[in-house]
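User: Show me sequence and structure for the first protein, then do the same for the second.

Assistant: Starting with the first protein.
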Amino acid sequence: MTTITEADLIQSLADALQYISYYHPEDYITNLVTAYEREESPAAKQAMAQILINSRMAALGKRPMCQDTGSAQIFIRLGVGVRLATQRSLQEIADEATRIAWQVSGNPLRASMVADPIFERKNTRDNTPAMLHVEVVAGDRLEVHVAAKGGGSENKAKFAALEPSDDIVAWVLKSVESMGAGWCPPGIMGLGVGGSPDKTLILAKSSLLDPIDMPDLLRRGPSSKTEELRIELFHKINALGIGAQGLGGLSTVLDVKIRTLPTHAASKPVGLVPQCAADRHAHFVLDGSGPAALKPPNLALWPDLKLDGPAGNVRRVDLDRLDSAQVQSWKAGDTLLISGRLLTGRDAAHARMARMLAAGEKLPVDFAGRAIYYVGPVDAVAGEAVGPAGPTTSTRMDRFTDMMLGQAGLAVMIGKAERGPEAIESIRRHKAAYLIAVGGAAYLVSKAIRSARVLAFADLGMEAIHEFVVEDMPVTVAVDSTGASVHTLGPARWRRSL
């Protein structure tokens, strides 16, 4: 009988959750470098360069690679020959480890979990509860996979109860196209097939913990029908032309994983879970000899990249002197280096402002002629103006776009990924613009922020309205004042025959 102490398990889990906040797995970096080197789309190549530079900075600085430090995902395989020396449940232990990991003073992580998901949606402040999955297996070891999944990729998960004769490939391709770029490609797709509706999504998510082996599979060739399907999906997803950040390019996925279970004869449940560019996971085993020791990755794997001159037409913009004529002069695909005062706000702030305007109340901040950045930053540590501060998926603000442009007088919005048709029409009608920063480059983006202060809604924590002072923050015009969108133009250019 192997005895594992509660303290060893908690320390191992907490250490792993901190570790994955700033270290990419080596296999992800190796494969992203390969994709970067073969990429032909200038915009996608520039985006991948920013992700790689950000990753190296995060590893060196031991600060989060992404501002959305995710929900704690913990997969435990508990051997029947293991005795846990504890009086607490595994959920309580996982939550305690999460609480510790998220509140490390030298690298605080962003608390994103809200309790009462239907009504109050009040932040738990410590990122609990962890999403825990436990399997009791043969053996005398405790095996753990730890991951952190951000909201941008989690929200793009898909499920369908297909008919037994339905085409899985057709469903996957349709699903991936409907995801847009909010899941921050290039990443990995996990496909689960079979079991039951609840099981198939766990299959899909757990498959993302497997090492990236698509290059090896392509070299040696498939040895099973499942491997044939993986290769087919890999090529066909990339042929969609979505590319890094949805800008159009050769690489949307670095790998496709598939896990299956037997299922009812009348059923074919399928689940699809994407893994974003913040591919964060670690594996360890406890055998009773003490807590796990995770080895840092080899930093020589990261290329020493320098950002080239941004792709496209580059302009410097003073946010404190924005005018309508200037905004209307920008074209989709232009790169801007923005400086000056930049407001922030996300879902909760927008919802509160909508209630205030409906009640005839004055907003606490004047948005007229200003720019807003959809961001929920990580708390700063010593010497930082703000912690990692990458963009939020912008479609969540689509329902508020006409209100902000029409009633509040906003001129410019900044976030990540595409906008929906109604938001684009509102942008066109109000002669506004929507810009994007690179998702997955949060630490790099934060270096352009010189100061930060809360202006309103402080009770919302990371979702409060801040004012950043930024200097040469790189952004791309994603939707211009005519309604032209790079997320339509880019993929259309790079789409290849299926």
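Switching to the second protein now.
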Amino acid sequence: MRPCCTIATASVSQLPERERSFFMAFMPSARTAITLGHHVTTEEEWTWYVTEEGGEHCAADDHASELCHMIEVELTQSGYEAKAVEYPRTSGLQFRYVAQAAGMGTIGTNAFLFHPEWGPWIHLRVIATSAKLDIRPKVSGDQLCNSCGLCITACPACAISEDTFLGLQCRSYRKLRGEYEPYGPKRELRYCLRCAWVCPQGESPQRRDRL
């Protein structure tokens, strides 16, 4: 695995009820949920674009998707079932809860997963497999959410509080601002990341120039 990525697993039987129910429907034979985390180091990596087919992609997810495919192939060739959960299409699974169960980090006030070294700057992918695996991330650091409250103040949708993240309120605000409509010749999707940019945890990605 490249240094930019980390991998961890959680037993499906030990996942929270909602996530466990998802895997039971998605792959009844699934015994393990594999979480792949990619460290986002530049703003461009996490900038999404609309494809000609109408889908969405970004460099971070392209890389994570490629690695997931490699893992799927290896597991399948070893005689196991393996299937990546669809993303960015709506799957019904919240990856951060699976990642937290796998020990990859903890969920912060702004609902991002906080990695011990990278803070909120991590892109997640999840694979279901019938293989029984126990892989724990080898990480160290203290970049978990410290409940400083900066994201609460910065959120333009007022969707974040000390103990609640209102996902629908966040999404509605962003939709009204046209964030789900492609912009410019590259068909860029300019999603709000204010709660991540103000976060003092982790090293913020390198900003990119915009016209």
